[in-house]
Every structure is written in C-alpha cells, then in structure tokens.
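Box 3.1 A note on notation
Throughout this textbook, protein chains are presented in two layers. The first layer is the amino acid sequence; the second is a token string describing backbone geometry. Keep the layers aligned when reading.
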Amino acid sequence: MTGTGQAWRRLRAYPSAVASLVLLAGLGLLVAAAPLLEAMLALDAARVDLFNRLAPPGPVHWLGTDELGRDLLLRLLHGGRVSLLVGLSAALCTAVIGAVLGLVSGFVGGRVDDLIMRCADALISLPLLPLLIVLAAVDPAKLGLPESVGNSANFSLYRIIAIIAIVGWPGVARLVRGTTLSLREREFVQVARALGLGPARIMFRHILPNAASPLLVATTLAVGNVILFESVLSFLGLGIHPPVPSWGNMLNGAQELMHQAPLLAVWPGLLIFVTVIGFNLLGDGLQAALDPRAAARSP
C-alpha cells in the first residue's frame, strides 16, 4: 500500500476527522454554488428591500431576510466565500513564508538562523489579537496608498490576508526549522551535497517534501484560526467592510437586533463555530494519520 493509501486508512480510524472533511467539503461546495443558487431563486444577495426587512423564512427567502431586506441564505453563502477565501489564502501565505524562512534558517544556520529566529521570537512574544487589531486599524492613506485603493471594496479583504500572513509565519517557521535541523544531517542530504547539488535544490527538492506532513497539519489548523481572527476583526469593524459580506461583519450588523431577530446572529455564529471546529478536528486527524509513530503502531 502506498504512503498516501496508508495515511488515508489511518485517517479513516478517526470518525470525527472524516466527518469534518465531509462537512467542510459540503460547505465548500455550497458556498461555491452561491451564484448558481442565486440565479435559480431569481434573487440578488445585494439587493436592498426595506419593505421586506426582517421577513421570516418562507418559500422565497428560505432563511428570511436581514435588516435591509436582503436574502439571508444568499448573504451567508456569499459571506462564506469571503471567510473561507480569507482563511485558506492567509493560511497558505503563512505556510509559504514560514516554510521558506524555516528551511533557510535550519539549513544555513549561523547568523542567518539567529536573525530569523530572533524575528520569530519577537513576533511570538507579542499578543496576536491586539497586534492584528492595531495593524488593521492603520489608515491606508498614512501608508501612502491612493485613496481609490484604500476605499475599494476588496482592499479590506487583501489587507486582512496580508496582515495575518505577515504576523503568522513564526510558528510555521519554527516547525519547519526543527524538521530541517533533523533532516540536514541525514544520508540522502549528504549524498545530494556530494553530488554537487546547490543549497536551494537540496532544500526544496529533498528536505521540504520530507517536512510536508507537519506543514500540511499546521496549515490545516491555521485555517480555522484565521477564520476566527477575521470574524473577530470584522465584528469589531476592522476587518472585511460592507458591502462585501463575511460572517464576521454579518455578526456586527446583527448585534443591535439580537432581541428582535436573533437568527441574524445565530446563523453566521453557527457557521463560524462549525467551520473552525471542523478544521481543528481535521487537523488533529491528519496529525495522527501522518505521524510516523502512528504508522508504526498501526496494524
């Protein structure tokens, strides 16, 4: 049986991880199909209808409408597209930055290692959520960006991805560095050096593939954390700005209507909870399935 087949067999031994994978795949398909569902229902998720605000669930609006008369189901699906895009993109960017810096730090060593690790230690020592809040509150105009860029609908989305990637790489870098330190003295690396291969080729062709398992687990776990951070920032008005929907800013818009229409807060909050828990359980299952020690214990 191949390594991938063995990992899948071990993953199936964790029903919670398999259930999370199925749930997240289904949720991904739903949010991807949001434009199709919008066309089928002949509705516009962004259309404001003040005469139909806070309508209850019905045959036209399956989950009712929000405070501006917009279809709640479609808003949730479009918000899921944004929240999942931010989570996946920021986690991938964090993984790429952390993997490159961790490889260089562990393979080169010396002053380069010291410099990268001291920067990582400095970022790790800072409280993450307050740091994200401070960075997200910075006025783009004071950074020299044109006003048209700062006021664009998608700028807040790209800013959140960039901020989380910039401050989130130290954990991945330390993980990859530790793996690189244990691999750089292995025989296959020594053979590659003896054959005259360059450092970059050794790092990315020989060491990185062997560090892929812990990197995959760390990235999976990071997606849930990123979605949670984005939701908190958007809830505070510092993340994704309307009219671009996200689960976080939908919660922000529903907080003043908790008594009048509690479902406006329940649905996005429930989706955030389920998605974050799903990625965490999937990450735990992948960690167990890809752990060599677990493979040695498996029958």
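Residues 14-45+66-292 form a domain with the MetI-like fold fold (CATH 1.10.3720.10). The two ends are 13 Å apart (CA to CA).
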